[in-house]
Design goal:
- This protein is an alpha/beta fold and 401 residues long.
- The protein folds into two domains: 2-91 and 258-397, FAD/NAD(P)-binding domain (3-Layer(bba) Sandwich), CATH 3.50.50; 95-252, FAD/NAD(P)-binding domain.
- The protein has helices at 2-9, 30-34, 101-104, 117-126, 146-160, 180-193, 229-232, 260-263, 304-322, 377-393, and strands spanning 15-18, 23-25, 44-46, 55-58, 62-66, 71-74, 79-81, 85-87, 92-93, 110-111, 130-135, 165-170, 196-198, 201-207, 212-217, 236-238, 242-246, 249-252, 256-257, 289-291, 336-343, 346-352.
- The strands form eight sheets. The chain has a five-stranded parallel β-sheet, covered by helices on one side.
- Helix 1 packs parallel to helix 9 (304-322).
- The chain is globular, with a radius of gyration of 22 Å.
């Protein structure tokens, strides 16, 4: 998207994209794949079809940086020099951070839309009853709402198919969602399905053989984890706020981190994320480097919608610098968006900024959606049909959307 917009402003620029992948995936649809309402094959396109006209594709792995000498190191092509660098490698799954997860993931009844959404659908279809547990790690993750979206779709699936399920959504966080109008909608959704909501639950261990997940209660009030509903889902509490919960199905977002070559570079902050200015996206130590997307150390949700607003800021700042002006566009205010699917045919749309303000797009009124914090079938249509079209045909081609 960045390359396409740059070449749209100046077709004579020398733009290279370093990316080893043969295939590019529209990952936001993996939630729907996991619920059996989208074909996995339709989320993939050959990378070569997406490289903008005029850009050079270097199909290789970036392996490191020598930012003092304006060089990216690659696995097969050696050192590649640059005048300006945009770092946007996304993030990687890091299942080793939870004991037993690496061995359990995508096998048996343990699944994740983040790694194998087709397996999630198999687990969902074969579920006969009992505890269906959905959780997420303490690390930042891409699309923070995804672990609960599949929980709502599963709850709806079980209800429609009259399956006796106890659906649990356990999160290390304190609330269902940080934006108040969205939180109120999601609380109604949880109540509608009779779900067990468990805040302050951080997953620490998975025993796939015994089908038990262990959580550490991370809230201030350790007694809060002992509730009447614990008995109904078979929770056992021991020691220092350690909770064991049996499961008949477990879906989780694995812990996630910046790629190794980023973490081991001198471009990161103390938490291992790319150290950029949160408004201009310019690197805090190297002014000719910019970062965007999931790898950037920005206090907002890691989503494709965020990138949609970040790219024009980066592009304008690069154009300023090429004309010997400072990168003065500091207009990115943390916009991110999370399409929260709440059942088959239902969705609410969370749009928000750094301050957690609800910031709905005025264009939604053209779709006759006047309050996107409420569930609506038109928002479902946007998720299933509108957003994939915009992604492939607008965003990836550099159009302003």
């Amino acid at each position: 998207m960045t390359a396409a917009q740059l070449l749209g402003k100046n077709a004579n620029l020398s733009v290279a994209i370093i990316d080893p992948a043969e295939t590019h995936y529209y990952q936001p649809a993996w939630t729907l794949v996991g619920a059996g309402t989208y074909n996995f094959e339709d989320t993939a396109k050959p990378m070569k079809e997406l490289i903008p006209d005029g850009a050079d594709w270097i199909q290789d792995y970036a392996s490191g940086f020598d930012a003092d000498n304006n060089v990216v190191k690659t696995k097969n092509n050696g050192d590649i020099a640059y005048d300006y660098l945009v770092v946007a490698p996304g993030l990687v799954m890091d299942p080793k951070q939870i004991e037993g997860l690496e061995e359990a993931l995508d096998k048996g009844v343990v699944c994740s839309n983040y790694t194998d959404s087709k397996h999630t659908w198999e687990v969902l279809k074969n579920f006969k009853g009992g505890n269906a547990v959905f959780t997420q790690p303490t690390t930042p993750i891409k699309c923070g709402g995804a672990p609960q979206k599949i929980a709502y779709l599963a709850a709806d699936y079980f209800k429609k198919n009259k399956i006796d399920a106890k659906v649990v959504f356990a999160t290390p966080g304190s609330v269902l969602f940080g934006v108040k109008p969205i939180r109120e909608t999601l609380q109604r959704v949880v109540d509608r399905y009779g779900m067990h909501f468990k805040p302050y639950y951080a997953p620490v261990k998975i025993d796939a053989e015994k089908q038990i997940i262990t959580f550490k209660y991370v809230g201030d009030d350790e007694n809060q984890c002992v509730e009447n509903e614990s008995k109904s889902i078979g929770e056992k509490i021991s020691g220092e706020a350690i909770i064991e919960m049996p499961f008949n199905m477990l879906h989780l977002a694995p812990p996630q981190a910046a790629p190794k070559f980023i973490k081991e570079s001198n471009l990161v902050n103390k938490d291992g994320w790319l150290d950029v200015n949160i408004n201009s996206l310019q690197h805090n130590a190297y002014p000719n480097i910019f970062g965007l997307g999931d790898v950037a150390a920005l206090p907002t949700a890691k989503t494709g919608a965020a990138i949609r607003k970040q790219v024009p800021v980066v592009v304008e700042n690069l154009m300023f610098m090429m004309n010997n002006k400072p990168a003065s566009n500091k207009s990115y205010q943390g916009y991110s968006s999370c399409p929260l699917v709440t059942g088959y045919g239902k969705m609410a749309l969370a749009e928000f900024d750094y301050e957690g303000n609800f910031t709905p797009d005025p264009k939604l009124k053209q779709m006759l959606i006047f309050d996107s914090s409420k569930e609506h079938w038109r928002l479902w249509m946007l998720k299933k049909y509108g957003l994939p079209y915009l992604y492939w045909n607008k965003m990836m081609k550099g159009a302003a959307v």
